[in-house]
Amino acid sequence: MDRVFGMAGLLGLWLLGEGISAHFGLPVPGSVIGLMLLFVILCLKGGIPTGVASASDSLLKYLAMLFVPAGVGIMVYGEVLLDVWLPTSVAVVLATLLTLGISATVMAVSIRLSRSREL
Amino acid sequence: MMAHILEQPGFYLMLTLLCFGVGQWVFERSGRHTLANPVTIAAIGVIATLLVLEVPYEQYFEGAQILHFLLGPATVALAVPLYRQMHHLKRLWLPIVLAILASVSISFTGAIQLSRWLGMDGELGNALGLKSVTVPVAMGISEHIDTTVSLTIVFVVITGNLGSIIGSSVLGRFGVRDPRVMGLALGATSHGQGTARAFDLHPESGAFAGLAMALTAVFASLLMPLIYSLMH
Fold it and tell me: Do B80 and A38 touch (CB under 8 A)?
């Protein structure tokens, strides 16, 4: 029962986010505004209501499955991608290495800096 | 009779569940091998079936869109794991926020620049720029920049696979030993799949990866459309 209310709550926050995004013409997707609203609510409440926790956990457990319908859409782009598979593959590998490198470096350096400042 | 069944939207929902179930089964049987990605296996299975049955994508999507539509509330639900990681955020908020800000802005502009040098189409390059953002959020951003949802998902899923396969060994080779740094980089690069991989390495890595994934989603949706409009 709690989970049904939790699910209704997640849907409600998502729709509220969509409404806010459209009303103010924001570039942020409504779902992310909903995420931030829920985060603020949880912080104000100081805990996660059981219904919200169980609805969230069950949705996130099957998150990967929800990507399939849009992923199948690649069939529309099959030929376009096959034509440029080599530069595309090179770009994906390099861009992945770039993100790994940047995030790890900035995190490691700033942990070290904040620690040395504390001493 | 077959023609009538193929007209039912329910058929495509069933097909999606079936193919994902097979994908999940292969993934478990392979010892959760990162190459046996259930989403990839499911998409290949669905596409093959649609080609054999000569069903266009639009007809498939009409039936399967109920799953697609659940991505909205699922994104809202990401606030729950983020809230559970709050204690990490409080202690190390500055390094975490700096790392995610740098990773979001530099990897978005870097990926687009890289695709230009390699002579790739603008639509492809923009989709590549969104590669490290978790799927539901990347899809939302893709509607605000010049690219398509499907291309975006392809790059996000490939990066999820690639980063979780090579991430820890590449970082290890460069001397990264701190499980917090390792986790943050995996989550910031390979979102959900990187987070799953980070939990295999160390529980602390997993927590930081989940946090990195959620913060990347929030910062990306705030910054990427802005950077995009500055670049054009």
Answer: yes
